């Protein structure tokens, strides 16, 4: 639903987004990761037509943002979640937004209910807690019932209950078949929420892969196997591109592969397994390795 084609954005001498090409799929939460200054916000702004690309294109449902006839019904975003008029209530804010975009008024009540704000709907936006204003921003993003939703750091500053709530919401939006694109600095959170990850560094694409593959790419991830035919399986895995160590006659430890692949390969070759276990790195560890060359300022 979102496709980026050779997307670039230059600010003076600085290439903030550098030739990004990728496709975001519906029905999944895609996490958008990268060190500070990597170009995540700029990419999201380009998708939403808030900035013009220097080269390439960002398309939603095959069109650039400014050619979408009913934008709020196509894509919802929380990039400006706190840009609310402080004297207006959440209800008034959503009502104005619905009226201005030809969205039925019943949606106001529906989205307030969905984000758990029905009680606080008449409070002035200026008097809302950070958690509540995040929820209101999400309500606004969902107002047009859009198939694509984008959230920039949605759990920033939220307490653990708020973080859990956002995680459940992202999952349910994806289960409804929407394209969910969310940037975050919280790796442990992304590990629990995302199906797929896009990692950028200095504007460039570093990884675009399902979460398990990103984790498996870490040198700390490995598949641990015990089999009476370990040598035979080791040869097959090595031929398939994995790096294999043999700590014992019946043992092997493979990196650069997944437990699923090892299991499938063993099954196809009729090799019996007595143990098959993924030793998983954390997303944090995989991310550190992926981006170690892209961090702008490193403390020593
Ligand atoms: N309007 C602008 N004018 C000039 N430079 C900009 C502008 N917006 C962003 N940049 C620069 O582009 C680069 C990418 O910034 P961007 O905010 O997109 O990164 P980010 O990945 O969202 O970072 P963070 O995680 O810190 O929010 C940075 O070097 C930033 O200084």
TrEMBL record:
The keyword ATP-binding applies. Residues 2-227 form the ABC transporter domain. Keywords: ATP-binding, Nucleotide-binding, Transport. Pfam families: ABC_tran (PF00005). SMART domains: AAA. SUPFAM superfamilies: P-loop containing nucleoside triphosphate hydrolases. GO terms for molecular function: ATP binding. InterPro entries: AAA+_ATPase, ABC_transporter-like_ATP-bd, ABC_transporter-like_CS, P-loop_NTPase. Belongs to the ABC transporter superfamily. This is ATP-binding cassette domain-containing protein.
């Amino acid at each position: 639903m979102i496709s980026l084609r050779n997307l670039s954005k230059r600010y003076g001498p600085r290439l903030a987004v550098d030739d990004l090409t990728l496709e975001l799929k519906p029905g999944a939460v895609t996490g958008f990761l990268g060190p500070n200054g990597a170009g995540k916000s700029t990419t999201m702004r380009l998708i939403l037509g808030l900035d013009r690309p220097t080269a390439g294109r960002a398309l939603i449902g095959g069109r650039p943002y400014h050619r979408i006839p009913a934008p709020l019904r196509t894509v919802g975003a929380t990039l400006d979640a706190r840009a609310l008029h402080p004297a207006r209530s959440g209800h008034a804010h959503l009502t104005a937004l619905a009226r201005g975009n030809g969205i039925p008024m019943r949606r106001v009540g529906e989205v307030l209910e969905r984000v758990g704000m029905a009680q606080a709907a008449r409070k002035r936006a200026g008097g809302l807690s950070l958690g509540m204003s995040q929820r209101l921003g999400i309500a606004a993003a969902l107002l047009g019932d859009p198939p694509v939703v984008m959230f920039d750091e949605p759990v920033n500053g939220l307490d653990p209950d708020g973080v859990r709530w956002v995680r459940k919401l992202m999952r349910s939006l994806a289960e409804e078949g929407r394209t969910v694109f969310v940037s975050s600095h919280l790796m442990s959170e992304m590990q629990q929420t995302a199906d797929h990850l896009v990692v950028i560094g200095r504007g460039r694409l570093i990884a675009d892969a399902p979460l398990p593959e990103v984790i498996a790419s870490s040198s700390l991830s490995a598949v641990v196997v015990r089999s009476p035919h370990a040598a035979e399986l080791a040869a097959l895995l090595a031929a398939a591109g994995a790096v294999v160590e043999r700590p014992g006659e019946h043992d092997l430890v493979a990196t650069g592969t997944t437990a699923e692949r090892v299991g499938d390969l063993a099954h196809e070759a009729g090799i019996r397994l007595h143990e098959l276990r993924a030793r998983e790195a954390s997303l944090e560890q995989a991310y550190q390795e992926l981006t170690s060359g892209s961090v702008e300022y490193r403390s020593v």
